Amino acid sequence: MESTPPPFDPATLASRLESIVSKSQISTAAEILATHSTDKWYASHPPDVVVFAESTADVSAVLTFASQNQIPVTTRGAGVGYVGGCVPIQGGIVLSTARMNQILGIYPEDGVAIVQPGVITGDLQAAANQVGWDYPPDPASLKECSIGGNIATNAGGPRCLKYGVTRSYVLGLEVVLPDGQVLRTGGRLHKNKTGFDLIGIFTGSEGMMGVITEATLRLIPKPAARAMLAAVFPEFNLAAAAVQNILNSGHLPSALEITDTFTLAAARRRLGADVFPEGNAHLIVEIDGRHAAVESELEELYQRLLSLGASHIQRAVDEAACEHIWKLRREFSYSLRDTGLTKLNEDIVVPRSKLVELVEFARSLEQKTGIPVACFGHAGDGNIHTNLMVENYDDPKVRAHADEALDLLFTWILENGGAITGEHGVGLAKKPWIRQALGETSLFVHQALKQALDPQRLLNPGKFLDL
Amino acid sequence: MESTPPPFDPATLASRLESIVSKSQISTAAEILATHSTDKWYASHPPDVVVFAESTADVSAVLTFASQNQIPVTTRGAGVGYVGGCVPIQGGIVLSTARMNQILGIYPEDGVAIVQPGVITGDLQAAANQVGWDYPPDPASLKECSIGGNIATNAGGPRCLKYGVTRSYVLGLEVVLPDGQVLRTGGRLHKNKTGFDLIGIFTGSEGMMGVITEATLRLIPKPAARAMLAAVFPEFNLAAAAVQNILNSGHLPSALEITDTFTLAAARRRLGADVFPEGNAHLIVEIDGRHAAVESELEELYQRLLSLGASHIQRAVDEAACEHIWKLRREFSYSLRDTGLTKLNEDIVVPRSKLVELVEFARSLEQKTGIPVACFGHAGDGNIHTNLMVENYDDPKVRAHADEALDLLFTWILENGGAITGEHGVGLAKKPWIRQALGETSLFVHQALKQALDPQRLLNPGKFLDL
């Protein structure tokens, strides 16, 4: 789909916007345009202007203006996505929600928090924890990502195995529609069957259906205790079998994280050879609950992992020890970056029974393409971050070769009943494979829904529905 | 919105359908039309013909034919809804999925079950339990309701406090669209961010967006143990305070069920005065998990309830004892029917902090209208079944008076941030209040979505979008 030329040059656009929001909320400064051109992925395109919304009224006024003048609007949260989802590929306005960053209230008596979209996920967790409650979704970037972006991508994380993804925690939304209308749906209610699931329409819609300006989020009583086991196995298939065995014996850990040989080797290089005892796979099991419960379950799981062939098991029974293990786990990503290679982090998902086949496929892909492949991630969900480690990614020839490798990976994933994205979204990164992934009927439904809410196709244009 | 007269008389319609499905799948017999005219609510309207689909191909062929000929189609699962949702109020075809009742597979290795829509919810639970897994959603009608209807209404139940409603367990759907196209979305994957949340579009859409022909459902490892406390409190406000206290101290019970004085009195009349010790409120707390965990948490909760003023607490520590308590709990509904009055069961929801205010409002409504009001239900969710007990409901004058009382109830609910339905859906029963409940912007979005997928408005016409 072609983009039509914008009706205003950037300077005119900015001055027109000054009649809508205050001057301090508008920028065409080169460095501001630059930081709002990209996210953590590789695509980049500058907006004509950045508007920093400070209220729902601002968002509504900007969208009303944009829809009356056919100006593309790309909403941006914290800008730490992995797929180019907030890159304003057709220019126009970047509408930042970063200044709408207030926690409006934490209400244990109703089991909810009410927040603006720019609130950093980790800050919400900390605020809920302070009053004995918890917001479970825990994307790895939780210290820098914001709730608005989490909702736009329906973000996941390790604990989603037990607690579910972001969608399970959104009870109410205020959303500004593409034409500027303000929709309020849901509320501080833990069940609600009043009409269709409008929250679901916007959660995961990657900024293409509306702009979230407020969210009412479900909190849960914070589990009193947690504990972890970090086990090393001689081979990956033993660790994968342990995942099946644990779940099949009635345990529902809060996290089950698996790591392959390549990643472990990189981690040993970064962190020291003695950090992980010898072995080709690593498995983290985290449980939570009441103190006595966690204590006895940890012992059960310890014995189970031993009997399943773990060659070394580390116990973490208090908060500090658990955080230490998670800190090591978070280093995996940096360890891969230490290789000096470009890391193409693909958050693919397979049916849980296919973990071993996935890693075997990754090995064969590595042999076929010469591109090392590192796998680690959320084993319980089958959501394994599969990282293609590419040398000289800036070279167009290399990039084309990497795309061919990705094509082989995604084709295998889809043939095996998997998904090309589990938690990062489609954005620009997965756009070339979206037709293959969805199929024609699903695309038809997507386009019909888009047409229903954004017939001018102004919200986040150029993404996966503009094929 | 007016209905246009159907293009065929019933006999012609039936004979035209014979070219599409086999004769044994079509009925115009009076007793079949009668049983397919209504559900557990009070509205009734016969279809012209009933078609019993036996495959996705049947559903697709019927919808293709219906859309080409502008014939209304109302899908029917087990027909045990509480709001008239499957009543074919504009005649036409009732499309029954009752014969599509196969569990296609239970796959612990992937943590999923794949089922046809006509599978009875309790049968799925039993089949999952047999292999050590569980399907948590537990509507009270689970022995007679079907998965297709559960998905159409996004059904809840007591355990949804801990485990979430039906939507949290739908990982994949096959849906036939109003024009006969077959959509497959999602799969046996515990995370999936490929495009918009199409599962959410259909889950809870009350048969107005498509016909579900297959579902891939999330299973969880069956908790090894469960246990319950059934406590009597002198007054309702003490029981409601206990709900807050339990959740605020880090417990997340699988169920928290509260009962008011009126309901208790009716239960004592049905079951004997000695079944419940003296007291004006009853609270059930159910927990589940590993054996040792459940044992120690039960003791903690016992002491907590004592300190919060419970005058009598019964412990249930094994499966049989728990089932006995649930059996008594299920008798509450029958106890209310024993009164000889018509029970208007409204599944309203309030913010959890407003339980006491709700029950106080119910008492004032009773005084104002002369209609007794019985409250009991899912206290942890704020989803309290509020039953208006009406004498001579068949008398139009009485019905009008009852509607006035419902209007007072729903107006209060909405003014207090509540919802007019938590798990039953809107159907015909709540249709008069849907505009007030949703507001104009939400209605606009609903209509736009309906227009996108069912522009001829043939699926389940006459319901809450045909105002």
TrEMBL record, chains A, B:
Pfam families: FAD-oxidase_C (PF02913), FAD_binding_4 (PF01565). It comes from Luteolibacter pohnpeiensis. Its cofactor is FAD. InterPro entries: FAD-bd_oxidored_4_C, FAD-bd_PCMH, FAD-bd_PCMH-like_sf, FAD-bd_PCMH_sub2, FAD-linked_Oxase-like_C, FAD-linked_OxidoTrans_Type4, Oxid_FAD_bind_N, Vanillyl_alc_oxidase_C-sub2. This is FAD-binding protein. One of its GO terms (molecular function) is oxidoreductase activity. Keywords: FAD, Flavoprotein, Oxidoreductase. Residues 42-222 form the FAD-binding PCMH-type domain. PANTHER family: GLYCOLATE OXIDASE SUBUNIT GLCD. SUPFAM superfamilies: FAD-binding/transporter-associated domain-like, FAD-linked oxidases, C-terminal domain.
